[in-house]
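quick one
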Amino acid sequence: MAIIKKFRIKSFKKSAPLIYFSKISISFGKRQILDDVSFKVNPGEILGLLGPNGAGKSTIFNILTGLLKPDHGNIFFEAKDATEYPIYLRTRKFKIGYVPQYGGYFNDLTLFENLYAIAEILIQNKNDRIYKVNELIGKFELDNVREIKAKFLSGGQRRKLVICMALLGDPKILLCDEIFAALDVLTIQMLKEILVTLQNEKPQMCIIICEHQARELLSVVDRAMILSNNKIIAQGTPSQLIKNENARSAYFGEFFKFN
Ligand SMILES: Nc1ncnc2c1ncn2[C@@H]1O[C@H](COP(=O)(O)OP(=O)(O)OP(=O)(O)O)[C@@H](O)[C@H]1O
Ligand SMILES: [Mg+2]
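structure w/ adenosine-5'-triphosphate:
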């Protein structure tokens, strides 16, 4: 595996967390999905979220963006309690970029029009808007499909489009729900490099990535946690996590190797 991260930042303790997910519980009907789950994400940090299907990973993203309201607990962004903030306010005030697990684009707009529609909301100056849209189209090698309607793009091209949409607003908090799904090997490599470059260029930004491709995820994150049976059952740096007994028995299995 190519080395993506030259080093992992060992300590983020000096600054206040950008995200504090505090004692969150949520049930759907009688089924409890999250039970008193807490975690913090620091500026500059890339956090990985792993867990079996149905563990509640996308639910965490939906609670962070405000799409779902928790039964108990609070969400703090930059130490401000945003639990009651509506979606538009928390995404705008705290600059949240979100790559949802599914969809996230307008079917009947072209790739360029999708990006431009979001740029019109997020970027005031028209020249800056066009520059930023074209920059992302170039970076993600989407030039040859810029005039194609989103519904006719391939699965991977659509994922790239949604990632570009999330990056348009220059987010401070980037939430990525299964971003490597449907992408080819070289595109995954390119995307990992983009994430690590973002981390180096923007020390005040944080990224949470949820992903089933555990090796890909562990190669870019500073820290990861495993969600299982409504709780975070293990967390730590990638090398700590793969040695963790709980993590091995609930998620990685006995034979998982990293590096
Ligand atoms: N709005 C909802 N109403 C009812 N049940 C829901 C709702 N949202 C999520 N769930 C349930 O909560 C559980 C967790 O769902 P979630 O999508 O968070 O899982 P996940 O960890 O993202 O899984 P996957 O890896 O398959 O994407 C699932 O059993 C799902 O059916
Ligand atoms: Mg999910």
